[in-house]
Amino acid sequence: MARSTARKRALNTLYEADEKGQDILSLLAERIAHPGAQTPLPDYAITIVRAVAKYLVTLDRALADHSKGWNIKRMAVVDRNILRIAAWEILGNDEVPDKVAIDEALGQAKTLSDDESLSFIHGVLSALCADKDQYDLEAEAAERARIAAEKAAAEKEAAEQAAAEQAKADQEKAEQAETAQANAERTSVGSEPVDVPGPVPVAATDNVPGIDTDTDTDTDTTVPPLASA
After folding, report:
1. Which of 26, 66, 85, 149 is the most buried (most CB within 10 A)?
2. SS3 119
3. Residues 25, 29, 35, 36: is their CA dihedral positive or negative?
4. In this structure, are residues 49 and 12 in contact, taking their beta carbons and an 8 Å threshold?
5. How far apart, in whole angstroms, are the C-alpha atoms of residue 67 and residue 7?
6. Rounded CA gap, 218 and 29, in Å?
7. What distance in Å separates the CA atoms of residue 117 and residue 205, rounded to the nearest whole number?
8. pLDDT digits 0-9 by tens, 158-184
């Protein structure tokens, strides 16, 4: 009974995250920190939600493989999350027998879904049990983690290179600005007016010894006639 209750609480969390389009783990963290009027989430509910979040890609692929052409996104929100919980218990939790996982899923569907969904869920999970060896949750999760790490490293390297190039460009721009400022200052200094000495004034000759300044004295400038031969 305790695990049945935990499954219901896990379904509530997964349904809410799916309906809101919110990250599963971020919503789980909120529910753990602030359970509100409800009792704290049972440990098994937390385990289910974390497992579904971790293996979501593989779980959805496994369900799509056995849903007879039904795309996961076309399923009702409650149905696909009932299926995700059961799929994880079938593929990733050896403590839960496959039959128990199916029965628990059908019990939730009887309360929350219609008869058509009930039949659909039973068919998908039964088919999945028959092919469960085709799926390795841990290996696929590790591969996705490796790819994600490589992508993150490549993005970090690209960001660091872009930052270095930008810093270099900024430095060159600053140096060019300094050079332009220095040239402008030199040009400004060279264009300042320069005091050039003017012509030396002629000194007055009045009363200078040896110079006749009497302009009133007539001077005979007549050239005498040449003597005849």
Report:
1. 85
2. helix
3. negative
4. no
5. 22
6. 126
7. 131
8. 999 899 999 999 998 998 998 888 888
Residue 140 phi/psi, 5° resolution? -70, -35
List all residues 6 or more positions away from 118 whose beta carbon is below 8 Å from its beta carbon.
106, 109, 110
Q: How far apart are CA 218 and CA 130, in angstroms?
A: 149
How far is CA 104 from each of CA 61, 78, 153, rounded to the nearest angstrom? 21, 14, 42
Structure tokens at 220: 């005979």
Amino acid at 34: H
Q: How many CA atoms lie within 13 A of 20 on its CB side?
A: 11
C-beta neighbour count of 101 within 10 angstroms: 22
CA dist., res. 155 & res. 58, Å (int): 25
3-state secondary structure of 21: coil
- Cα separation, 118 vs 114, in Å, equals 6
To the nearest 10 degrees (0 to 180), the angle between helices 43-54 and 56-65 is 80
For residue 163, what are its two tokens? 């930052």
Residue 113: both structure tokens together: 């879904």
Q: What is the pLDDT of residues 63-107, one digit of tens each?
A: 999 998 788 999 999 999 999 999 999 999 999 999 999 999 999
Measured CA to CA, the distance from residue 190 to residue 194 in angstroms comes to 9
Query: Are the C-beta atoms of 25 and 50 separated by less than 8 Å?
Result: yes
Query: Tokens representing 76?
Result: 């009702």
Two tokens, residue 31: 């529910």
